[in-house]
What we know:
This protein is an all-beta fold.
Amino acid sequence: QVQLVESGGGSVQAGGSLRLSCVASRSIGSGQYWAWFRQAPGKRREGVAAIWTGTAATFDAASVKGRFSISQDKAKNTLYLQMNSLKPEDTAMYYCAAGRRSGSWNGEPYNYWGQGTQVTVSS
Length: 123
């Protein structure tokens, strides 16, 4: 079992930046996706970005390409999401997820989920 705890959310103006962190209770290990998802009110949950823990290959959604970047610090069991040039449409609850070993990075299910951290971007 893995517990995931997100932090770093907040309220910013459009064009601002935030860095989200997700700390895992133990090493995530290799050979799986470690990802960020988000869900805005009234919308479906969507994948934002993911990293394949073995090779550190990264994946991201078209809507955040060039603005967000995902990274991991294995020594700290931590996943990051650097978010730059934020837009009001990025407003959502952001969730960390782990434990998906096959298929597409933005599919489900993932075995482990955090409680989420709120990001609000004002225009």
